[in-house]
Structure formats: structure tokens, C-alpha cells
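Self-study notes.
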Amino acid sequence: MARVLIIGASRGIGLETVRQALDAGHRVRAFARSAEKIALSPPTLEKMNGNALARADVEAAVRGVDAVIQVLGVGAGELFRPVRLFSDATRILIAAMEAARVKRLIAVTGYGAGDSRGSMSLLQRVPFQLLLGRAYADKDVQERMIQASALDWTIARPAVLTNGARTGRYKVLVEPATWRNGVISRADVADFLVKQIEDRSLLRKSPVLA
């Protein structure tokens, strides 16, 4: 089993990934500004308080791990201001991983990031740009940084997120011709992320999940 660092571990997809990674038998280092509040306490879980934008925190977090799962998010109130969290945090993370010789990175962006935006219809693209344009412009930069790195990366692009149960019945759409919008539960996104810890079939791929 692997030693896994999960960045953004205190809520949403990140917290669900912590749960599922532990259930799968991995040793988990949960990294978040409020990691100590995570209501889990198995011996294979290490809670590490830290800021994804603080270089020293991230450098400490990546030491001794086999893989990193990066799950970042911004609040609704931040969507209407310039967003730099995704690119700034990823720049710090890539440098820290390279220095620590940690190769495996599994990152979450979203459907509409990078070249997946071209598969949206005009009716989808207009409200997407109005509501999420600033955040996804920064996710575009984030993806380019990851893709240009020498890391063993996989980028997950989930469609519209729900709080539904883990079903395992989601689609992993690798080929651009198959990309489409849809819905997927955070628990199913976590299921995909945990599988990628040991599954190398999607190295240097950016599938859409729906």
C-alpha cells in the first residue's frame, strides 16, 4: 500500500478521498488549513495543518510520500474576483515534489478546463464563462503547468458535482470525441482518485468524469 498526501483534505472531494484511501489500506497524510478538525482517527491517518500557498508547509508535506492527490477549491464569493489559487499552489507543489523526488501526482480540475472546454456547446459555454470563467482561466494555467512537468501525472476533470453516494457507475472519458457534461458524485470522483494511486493506465491523461 502507498503513502499518500491529500492536499485539500478537510472537506468535499478531498475528505471523501481520505476516507476511501484509508479504506483501501493506504497510509494517508491529510493536508489542510484545518486538518486537525477531520473527524477520523485511524492509526494510518496523519493530519497535517498547512497552507497550500506556503512553500515550507508544502515541502514538509511531500516528504516521504509515494503519491500526491491535489484537490483545491475556492468559495463562491471568490468566483467574481481574479483567481490564482490553482496556479500558485500548483507551482509550489510541483517544485516541492521535484525536490523530494516524488513522481506521482493526481490532480482535480474540472470539465471545462483546458482543451475540454472546446467540447461544450455554446449554450453551456456562455453561463460557464459568466459564473466560472475566472476560476477556470486559472485552472487552465494549472493544467498547463502539470502537463509541462516531468511528473507522472493524471488530471481528473469531473463534471457537475453532487453529494450522492459512491456508485462506481461513472464514465471515464479519455478521448476528446467522447467528452460531455453530466453529473457525478464527489464520492465517485474520490473512487477514481484512489484507484489512480496504483493504476498507471492513465498516466499523462486528462479524462472527463461523468
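Second protein, same conventions, sequence then structure:
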Amino acid sequence: MSWIGIILVVLGLYFAFKVAGFFLKLLMWALVVFGIYWFAAPYLGLPQFF
């Protein structure tokens, strides 16, 4: 494998971890928003999911 190939593999892994981190943060925010809605819905008179 040449140096260019090694650099491309390292950059690909770096960007893969960045994308995975972004989606994990997005999932965590979705869970937080769902949790806030689940706790606040009865007090605000909003429809509940469960």
C-alpha cells in the first residue's frame, strides 16, 4: 500500500468517527426531547404517546 492509500484510509476512518459521533449526539438530543415531552405532556394537556 502506498502512502496515499494509507492517508486515505486514515482520513476515511476519521470522517467515519465524526459522522458516527454526529448521529449519536442527534440520537441523544432526540431522547432528551422525547423525555421532556413525556414528562411535560400531562401537565400541559398535550396528547401522550403511551
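Instructor comment on the second fold: The chain has one domain: 1-50.
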